């Protein structure tokens, strides 16, 4: 139950991303002391972890919801580095 409470206290993806963008702007301004820069960096890294975790959760849900025909199948979420088309194209190349 403690795990649920700690995750409930985490800000949502949108709030985390907004705060992260604010931190970046403040750090890029060059007006922060070294101590404030370190605190902002630490907070930013924590927010990156939260955003990354939430994006991974969404990716897993998308994989589970993709349907082909009458069956639900797991289909990897295409990332910019690995477009889904490349996988299909390489299989077609192997058949030739």
What does this structure look like?
By secondary structure, this protein is mainly alpha-helical. It has one domain. 71% of the residues lie in helices and 4% in strands. It is built from four helices and two strands. A two-stranded antiparallel sheet has the order 1-2. A hairpin with a 2-residue loop joins strand 1 and strand 2. The protein is rod-shaped. The relative contact order is 0.08.
Features of this protein?
96 residues; mainly alpha; two-stranded antiparallel ribbon; rod-shaped; disordered C terminus
Layout of strands and helices, then pairs:
Layout: H1 2-9, H2 13-28, H3 34-65, E1 67-68, E2 71-72, H4 84-95
Antiparallel strand pairs: 1-2
Helix pairs in contact: 2-3
User: Mean pLDDT score, rounded?
Assistant: 76
Distance between the termini: 55 Å
Q: How many domains is the backbone divided into?
A: 1
The proportion of residues forming helix, as a percent range, comes to over 70%
Count of runs of 4 or more consecutive helical residues: 4
- The fraction of residues in strands falls at under 5%
Task: Count every beta strand, where a strand is a DSSP E run of 2 or more residues.
Answer: 2
> What structural class is derived from the secondary structure elements?
mainly alpha
General form: rod-shaped
> What is the gyration radius calculated from CA atoms?
20 Å
Q: Could you list the spans in which at least 5 consecutive residues all have pLDDT below 50?
A: 1-7, 85-96
